[in-house]
From TrEMBL:
This is DUF7431 domain-containing protein. Pfam families: DUF7431. Residues 1-177 form the DUF7431 domain.
Length: 201
């Protein structure tokens, strides 16, 4: 999950399409969603990833981290976003931002894979394993997370050389904020609708 600041994103590459969506603050709102497109990106197996971009980086939001994932629901692909402050270690209201989605049309066939989560034997925690998945480049450049429900606990993806681990977010609100009350589901073993799109070219 990457947060950028440059809003003048432009590409001359013919196979990359950029979709920019602007999110406007909606009062006391720490978690929200936007529609990106129809779900044909999933059904046609087209790789994509995104970057939330602050429109104004200042002293008020310099400690903010924007987490996000894609979600496939009702024939639509949505962007779920949450805002977290690393200074106070709590969820905070989403600021105004631009979400830039990069769609890679006609990609090289071996440059990406759609990988499910596996679970460690001892701790039973989800992770994505790169071993034996790519002949080279065990450190992918971009990773997109696609979920099927909107009530998962917010988490970040921690990328290592040969795998990606899930790191849950710790909130100091004492289980009183709307996110902690409503987002309680963890990734469970056997779920087929929770996957990572890994692009390494």
């Amino acid at each position: 999950m990457v947060v950028g600041y440059d809003t003048n994103l432009s590409f001359n590459l013919p196979n990359i399409e950029v979709i920019k969506k602007t999110y406007y603050p909606q009062g006391e709102c720490k978690f929200n969603s936007m529609v990106l497109s129809k779900n044909e990106l999933i059904t046609k197996n087209i790789p994509f990833f995104g970057i939330p971009v602050f429109e104004d980086l200042n002293s008020l939001n310099k400690s903010f981290i924007i987490g996000y994932n894609f979600r496939n629901v009702n024939n639509e692909l949505k962007i779920d976003m949450f805002s977290y402050c690393s200074k106070v270690r709590c969820y905070v209201n989403l600021p105004k931002l631009n979400f830039c989605a990069f769609i890679i049309n006609h990609p090289i066939s071996n440059a990406y894979k759609l990988l499910p989560f596996r679970f460690s034997i001892l701790k039973n925690k989800p992770f994505v394993d790169f071993k034996n998945k790519f002949t080279s480049h065990l450190n992918p450049k971009y990773v997109s997370l696609c979920l099927s429900k909107d009530n998962y606990k917010p988490f970040f993806l921690k990328q290592k050389i040969e795998q990606i681990k899930v790191k849950c977010v710790d909130c100091n609100c004492g289980k009183t904020c709307s996110v902690c009350k409503n987002k309680t589901l963890g990734i469970l073993k056997g779920e087929n609708d929770v996957k990572c799109i890994v692009y390494h070219y």
